[in-house]
Structure formats: C-alpha cells, structure tokens
TrEMBL record:
PANTHER family (UniProt xref): AB HYDROLASE SUPERFAMILY PROTEIN YCLE (PTHR43798:SF31), MONOACYLGLYCEROL LIPASE (PTHR43798)
InterPro entries: AB_hydrolase_1, AB_hydrolase_fold, AB_hydrolase_sf
Protein name: Alpha/beta hydrolase
Gene Ontology molecular function terms on file: hydrolase activity
Amino acid sequence: MNIVISEKDTAIYYELSGRGYPLVLLHGQYMNSTMFDTFDQEFGEDYQLIKIDLRGHGYSDKPLHINLDDYISDVLSVLDELYVKKAHFLGYGLGGMVAQAIAIRYPHLVQRLVLVSVGNEPFNDSEERFHLEFANLLRTMKQKDQDKLLAQYMYHDRKTVERWKRRLKDTETTMTNLERKAVNYSTEGVDLLSQSHLISAPALVVSGEHDHIIRPDHGRTLSEKIPNATYMLFENSGHAPMIEEKDRFVQDVKIFLAPELDI
C-alpha cells in the first residue's frame, strides 16, 4: 500500500502501474482510483500510471473540511514522493477540476492535459440545478429511485456503466454524512473558467452528448477558454464517455498524448 502524508497531516493513498512517461489519473467525485483499473493494459504499455485517491475518497483520509487547495496538495505530495517533475494529467469530473487547477497554477508540471466530463462549474452545482429542474418528481422519491432517475439523465449506455461501477472498490457507502458533506462543499464557489486562459499545456476536453448534468455546451465553453485546446464530443455517451465508448476514448487519448512518448 502506497501512502504519502499531504498537507494537514492527511494520508493519501496512490497506486502505480505500467512504465514509461508519467500519466497522472484523477478520479471523479465519490469515486476512487480503481475507476482507472480498466485502462491498465491500454495505457500501461507506454505510460507509468499514477492513480491517486484524493482526500475524502477511496483509501485516503477523510477530513471533515476540504477545499480545492487540499486536493492540489494531495497530488503535489505524491509527485514529490515519486520525484516526478512533469507529467501528463487525465482527470474525470472532480479530478478534472483538480488537474485543471494544477495546469493553471503550476504550468511547469503539466505536459498535456485531458479533461473528461468537466464543464464551467463544479459537479455539485450542476447536480443541484438538475434537482431543482425535476424537484416536483424528486421530492416524492426514495433515494434509490432518485439515483435511478439521475442515472437516466447522466448516462447513455447505462448497462455498460453499471457493469463498470460494480467492478470498482466500494469506499463510498461507509462514508459518514459529515464526510460526504465535506466532499460536496469542497469545490463550492470555485471559478476555474475565468482562469483557464492561463493554461499553456495542450488540452483535450471530452464531453458526452447525452450528459444532462455536465452538458456538452459546458465542455465546449471550457475548451474555447483554453488557448491550445481540442474539443471532442462523444455522440454515444453520457457522463462517462471513457467507459461508454471506451475503444474510441483510448484511441483518441493515445493519439493526443503520442507526441511526448519519446521524451
């Protein structure tokens, strides 16, 4: 088990696999580093995969107060531990926000940047807007039924996503309400869109056409703010294009990252 101590004496868990140029993989909200295990073979042949459980998630400590700076320090602590001076970053949802923030504040660390299902606002803000839009339906539903309705509007290929989620290590159900609240409010008030013009690394922004939470136009808006960004819309995906159209995703990301293979 790989553990590093980050800011505020917080233990951060990370995993390493593959070999080659470092590729940092950052998971989504309430998920953990095992969400990327499905890519070990595809990316591990050419890259050293650095999979990190951000605080509040996975096997890392779960403090009751978290902010974006804390997440950034978690990643920097792991990179320092591994003597990594520069890397590719691939982030999904919350992890994408963290990768985006690192690219803004520490451009010397980021070779290339892949942002998946990241828009112009935090996920919980988008989720809250969704709940307000369907308030009349949701207020009479049990939590399980609410989750099912949410999934209908998040994913296009729900069966594939459900199979993928069943393979992940479940570290969410044991979280207390206070621990969940800390994650929920960790990105409150964060505005990265207005700073995205400071990103100097080449970036790939990926959205799913059927994602009604982080809508495709949000991803396109973000890509337009990043000076050297490419936008890709996955027409047969929702919020998890890397799973719903895995083969295409792997191919597109490999092509995007390929120029740095010989570094």
